[in-house]
Amino acid sequence: MSQVLGKPQPEDEDDDEEEEDELVGLANYGDGPDSSDADPDSGAEEGVLDFSDPFSTEVKPRILLMGLRRSGKSSIQKVVFHKMSPNETLFLESTNKICREDVSNSSFVNFQIWDFPGQIDFFDPTFDYEMIFRGTGALIFVIDSQDDYMEALARLHLTVTRAHKVNTDINFEVFIHKVDGLSDDHKIETQRDIHQRANDDLADAGLEKIHLSFYLTSIYDHSIFEAFSKVVQKLIPQLPTLENLLNIFISNSGIEKAFLFDVVSKIYIATDSTPVDMQTYELCCDMIDVVIDISCIYGLKEDGAGTPYDKESTAIIKLNNTTVLYLKEVTKFLALVCFVREESFERKGLIDYNFHCFRKAIHEVFEVRMKVVKSGKVRKKKGSTPNGTPRVLL
Ligand SMILES: Nc1nc2c(ncn2[C@@H]2O[C@H](COP(=O)(O)OP(=O)(O)OP(=O)(O)O)[C@@H](O)[C@H]2O)c(=O)[nH]1
Ligand SMILES: [Mg+2]
């Protein structure tokens, strides 16, 4: 079972039987009944998790970025996916057409981000919003918290109700953005007010069943990465499996906390079930930056050949509070970052052995998916949505 990630295995007569075994194995890790079927991957790109539906013409689910002008949509996209520094976003021009971007070639997660111009009237009859919403996995509505948000709330309501009519499976995510300019009390008050008003508007329209998730975000700290992580996690059908694997791994290794990171975007795609605190997450992001930066500067060949992140990538940082940060490569896009107490880190051999098993299990999750796709046995089930995300699990 330690084949290379994502490589299809040669077919043989026992294929069917093997596949059954694999699926049982997957279920044992705690995945839901439909999830393995809900995310077939036709692309087979090595190490890329795709949650698309092969029966749909849409290849990748979309994450839409909507909101009023200057609310910060393009800045969010540039900072999270292009490593733009927050200060540079001051010079971004207003978006004047829909910008589609595939996030798949350099990253574990596979989707499209559509950045909308704020001023666009997307309910213009010439504008095919039905087509847009049909293949959408998540709609992120960005509200500028430093501005008067009444107009934004009206727009949010209109957007959500229209989108819901077309596709009831969209996850609605509201980013209460630019909170770097607010005091802590003001942040809480703003969130409470926006939450209340948005839900009241939905209740007045008899649509209280629509669920909105709220996040306080800013590009000037890690909150935007954390919020994006949560949005993306909801679109990953394998999430329960990954979480279970992490739980098993940390409990058997004396590890305090572990995150599975998409190295390029610094989105964490899963963590164990202990609560996440912002500082821990920030430290992990900083560690990834350090590893990749050092590797880019000193690790590549003279002519720039090589990759800054590969199978050998690993790092240990001892903090002054008796905690050790431990980073290891899992797949070509993923890294595991763990928090370990110094005394537990003395049993590094055990941690490394358990990590080896964990890594193998993650690779098997990919292989199962590949086999399911290859055997062509995938059937669309009630539990999966039109964009391929499981209805029940998330
Ligand atoms: N203080 C603060 N400013 C931000 C933040 N995010 C974005 N901005 C600023 O907000 C301004 C508008 O950002 P854009 O990303 O262009 O906004 P947009 O929503 O894409 O605007 P349109 O394309 O016109 O719809 C820029 O000057 C950004 O620097 C944030 O988290 N905090
Ligand atoms: Mg823009």
- Structure ligands: guanosine-5'-triphosphate, magnesium ion
Supply the number of helical segments. Answer: 11
Whole-number radius of gyration? 22 Å
Q: Residue ranges: pLDDT <50 for 5 or more in a row?
A: 1-59, 377-394
Mean pLDDT score: 78
Helix percent band: 25-40%
Terminal CA distance: 29 Å
Query: What portion of residues belong to β-strands?
Result: 15-25%
Shape: globular
| SS-derived structural category | alpha/beta
SSE ordering: HHEEHEEHEHEHEHHEEHEEEHH
Characterize the largest beta sheet: strand count, sense, and whether it forms a barrel.
7 strands, mixed
Number of strands: 12
Subcellular location: Cytoplasm; Lysosome; Lysosome membrane; Nucleus
Catalytic activity: GTP + H2O = GDP + phosphate + H(+)
Biased composition (Acidic residues): 11-23, 34-48
Region (Disordered): 1-52
Description:
There is one protein chain. This protein is of the alpha/beta class and 394 residues long. It is built from eleven helices and twelve strands. Helix 5 packs across helix 6 and helix 8 (239-253) runs antiparallel to helix 11. Guanosine-5'-triphosphate is lined by residues 67, 69-75, 89-90, 92, 94-95, 117-118, 177-178, 180-181, 218-220. Guanine nucleotide-binding protein that plays a crucial role in the cellular response to amino acid availability through regulation of the mTORC1 signaling cascade. It is found in: Cytoplasm; Lysosome; Lysosome membrane; Nucleus. Its main location: cytoplasm.
